[in-house]
Structure formats: C-alpha cells, structure tokens
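re: ur question from earlier - yeah i can do the single chain one, its not a big deal. heres the input i used so u can compare w yours
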Amino acid sequence: MTTTLITGANKGLGFETARQLVGAGHTVYVASRDAGRGRLAAERLGARAVALDVTDDASVAAAARAVEADGGLDVLVNNAGIQVEMEDGRVAGAAELTAEMMRRTFETNVVGMVRVLHAFLPLLRRSGAPVVVNVSSGLASLSRMTDPGMVGHAYPGVAYPASKAAVNMVTVQYAKAFPQMRINAVEPGFTRTDLNGNTGLQTVEQGAEIIVRMAQVGPDGPTGGYFDAEGPLAW
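and the output i got, formated as tokens:
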C-alpha cells in the first residue's frame, strides 16, 4: 500500500488530489493547517487527517512524528500555497509590492515547503519508491513570462511567480541530491480555486490530473522535471 501526504488538502486542488489518490488505492493523509477542517475533509474522502501548518516548525515536526508512528511515507505532495493580495483584492504589481508581501508569500510557498521536505525526508528515504511532487505554476517559467505570445505574460504580480520559480529551483536541487527519489514540479493550470477567487478556466478535477499522475511515477520515472498535463515545460 502506498502512503501519501498532501499539504493544504482540506479544499481545492489538494482535496481533489486526495480524492483521486484514495480512488487509486493510496492511503492518504489530508494535511491541513485547520485541524477541524482537515478532519471533515478526511472523513468525506475516507482518508486520514493530520494537522500541519507549513509555517510552523513544531506543527510540521509533530505531523512527521505522527505519520512515522503510523508506519511511514512513500509520497509527499507539497500543495499548500498562498497568493498575497492587496486590500482591494488585486495582486501587487512591481509598483505596489512590499517586502512584507514578498516575505509572507515565500514563508509559505518556499520556506514552508522546505520545512516539510526536511521533516519528512527521513521517512521518504526509508520507502522503496519515494516520490515528491511540488505544486508549482506556469507563472514560474521564465521562458513563458518573457514571451509576449504566451499565456500569463501579462500577469502583473511579482511575489507569487517569484516564489514558484524558487520552488522549481528547490525541486531541481533536491532531485540531484536524492537520485533514488522521483522529485518533480508540476503546473496544474489555471484552476478554479480559492487562491484565484474561483476565476480559473478549468475544474479541480482537470487541475489535479498532473499532480496525481506525477504522484504515481515509478522508480524509472522522470525526476528533476517541470511538467503540465501536456508534458515537460520550459524553465
């Protein structure tokens, strides 16, 4: 039985990823900052709940101990993420961006991801087929964002794309450091979730597809890559 933990899994893409992986036979931990919402989500899915706030060392360490006590981990999906907005609901462009906005975004999207990786690496290294999926974004692609003909080029925000570009670099470096693991970054696409005020162009079922696919790669699968549903993406 494959055991999988998904951060930020009480709603949106995380919840849908959990639903599909439960359906594929995984034992899934729904990791959620809000323990109550996590329990409710896990009950709906037939999954296990674990409280985990990616911005808190003690919370992440406690979650790792709980999962270890239950038997270990094979797959980690780093899904938790935020997009900091201004008071009027707009994302901050270069003229409005403050250091505090950048710090808050990176604390969850990058530092939080590394905190979770560090805590769960000992468990993953004991697995016979360890997999890590880091949920990135097409907005992280320097190739796309510098091409006026590409979707996303006109996006004005700075903090979120920069944080996801950092996620991509973390992915590459961890994949080189741990060649026995399959560690990849994925772009789910512009999906209707709370992160974007449900303005996305596709369903969570569609967005979760690449996450679920990469969560199930075998030992001979790709590693150190950046993928969307159609295949590899340009960095």
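The chain has seven helices and eight strands. not sure if urs matches, ping me
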